[in-house]
Amino acid sequence: MKNKKVGTILCHDEERFLHGPVVPPIYQNSLFTFENWDAIDKAFDAKAESYIYSRLLNPTVEVAEKKIAELCKGEKAKLCASGIAAVTSAILHCVSAGDHIVAVENIYGPTNNFIGTYLKSKFNISVTYVDGTNTTQFEEALRDNTKLIYLESPASLTFELQDLKAVTALAKRNGIKTIIDNTWATPIFQNPLSLGVDIEVHSVSKYLCGHSDVVAGVIISTKNIIDAIIQAEHELFGAKMAPFEGWLILRSLRTLELRMERHMQNAMAIAKHLDKHPNVDRVFYPGLSSFQQYELGQNQMRGYSGLLSFKLATSDISKIKAFVNALQIFKIGVSWGGHDSLVYAPVISYLKELSPDRFEAMGIDASIIRISVGLEGVEDLIRDLDQALDY
Q1: Band of the pLDDT at 277, cuts 50, 70, 90?
Q2: How far is CA 194 from CA 71, 73, 75, 187, 197, in A?
Q3: Using one digit for the tens of pLDDT, what is the confidence trace for 5-49?
Q4: Which residues are bridge partners to 284 per DSSP?
Q5: How would residue 356 be classed by pLDDT, with cut points 50, 70 and 90?
Q6: Which helix (H) or strand (E) holds 25?
Q7: What would you report as the CA-atom Rg of the chain, rounded to the nearest whole angstrom?
Q8: Is 6 left (phi over 0), alpha (psi -120 to 50) or beta?
Q9: Which of 29, 156, 216, 327 is spaced 20 to 30 Å from 108 by Cα?
Q10: Are 315 and 360 in contact (CB under 8 A)?
Q11: β-bridge pairing 307-312 and 331-332
Q12: For residue 364, is pLDDT > 90?
C-alpha cells in the first residue's frame, strides 16, 4: 500500500517470517550459510543486499532499516553502531583529501571535532563555519574545492534553523552534496530528504529509540548512496548494528509518533513558562512564537521535539551549579531524547571537546542550560524547575 500514514508505517512490518510472529524474531547469528558454491558466489555480487555476515546485513536489523527509510521518505537506510558512526561514515563518503566543507557552527560536539580537527589533521580537509541563518552565508563560503555542506536544523544548543530548500538548491547548482543531522526534529516533524537534502543522519539513541537503552545511528538516502556507504565506510570501519539492538529499535519505533506528541506538549508548556521566569534571561526553542525564525520552522517542520535550552539570568558559577544540583526530577546526564527528563550544562564537555576559539564562536557560556523534556507529568516538571530556579 502506498502513502501510508505514519502510525501504520510504525506499527506494521512488511516482512513475513516463519510461523507468522507478530514481532519479528531476533536473528542472533554472525553468519548465514548457503546451499552451494553458486549461491554464495551470487550473494557476493550483491553484498549490500545479501545475508552473508551480520556485520553488513541481518534480517532483524533490516526490518528496522526499511521502516526508518520509509518514515524518512528515503529509498534505503543503514543502521550503525552509534550516531557518530553514522555521521562520520556519511561525511567520509562525500569528501576526499584536500576538499573543503561548509558547516553550521552549532553542530553536535563530536561532529564539530571530527570536521574541524580530525579531518584537517589527517586529510587536509578544511572547513568554513557559518551560523546558517542566511543562505547567502553558505554561498559566500563556497570554494572551488567545496564538496559538502553539513547541516543541523535546528542546530545544537541555540537551535537556529537553516532554510533547507534554499541551501540544498544552492548545493545542487554547484554539484555539492548535503548532509543533515535530523535527530532533533525526527521524521515525525521534519523530512529533509523531501526538501532536497542528499543524506539524512540520526542518533537513534535519542528519539527513534527513546528508552535510553540503545546506542545507535542511522543513515538514510538513495539506494545508490547507501549501497556505496555499506560497501566502503560501513564495512571497512565495522560500525555494524547488533541484532538485539535492531530489535529494540523496532520495539521503540511502534510508539514514536505518540511519544513525540507528548515530548512536544511538555516542552512547549515548559518553554512558555521559562520564557516568563524572572531568573531566565532567554529561552532557545523554535516552537515559541517569539523565536526569531518561528515562521521558517512553521514552513519546513510539522512540530517540535522535547530538547530546549535556556540562559540563566546569572553568570555566577556557584548559582548555576546550585540550580543544576537542586533539580530532583531532571537528572544530570549527557544524552537526550529518552522518556526521562535530563539536564546538562554544555560548558562541562564542550570546553574539553572543542578549542577555545570554536567554543567562543558558538556563542555558548556557562549560563546556558540544556534540558531534555521527558514524558513525565508536565506540572511536576515545572514545579521542579521553579524550586531549582529559586537560587
Answers
A1: very high
A2: 11, 7, 11, 11, 7
A3: 888 888 877 777 766 787 889 999 999 999 999 999 999 999 888
A4: 309
A5: low
A6: none
A7: 21
A8: alpha
A9: 327
A10: no
A11: unpaired
A12: no
Per-residue pLDDT at 190 exceeds 90: yes
Binning pLDDT at 50, 70 and 90, where does residue 370 land?
very high
Residues 6+ apart with CB under 8 A from 44: 50, 52
Q: Which three cell numbers stand for residue 138?
A: 553558505
At residue 276, the pLDDT reads: 97
CB 312 within 8 A of CB 320: yes
Least confident of 22-26, 185-189, 319-323, 362-366: 362-366
Domains of the chain with CATH codes: 6-253 (3.40.640.10), 256-389 (3.90.1150.10)
The pLDDT, as a whole number, for residue 346 is 87
In the chain, the DSSP E strands lie at 76-80, 100-104, 126-130, 146-152, 177-181, 199-203, 217-221, 280-284, 307-312, 331-332, 342-344, 368-372
Phi, psi (deg, nearest 5) at residue 287: -75, -15
Helices 378-389 and 317-326: angle between axes, nearest 10 degrees: 150
Nearest CA-CA partner of 90 in 182, 187, 219, 217: 219
pTM: predicted TM-score of the whole model, two decimal places: 0.93
Number of helices (H) and strands (E) in the chain: give both, helices first: 18, 12
Distance CA 21, CA 375 (A): 30
Instruction: Return the C-alpha cell found at 235.
Output: 564495512
Helix-helix angle 256-275:378-389, to 10 degrees: 30
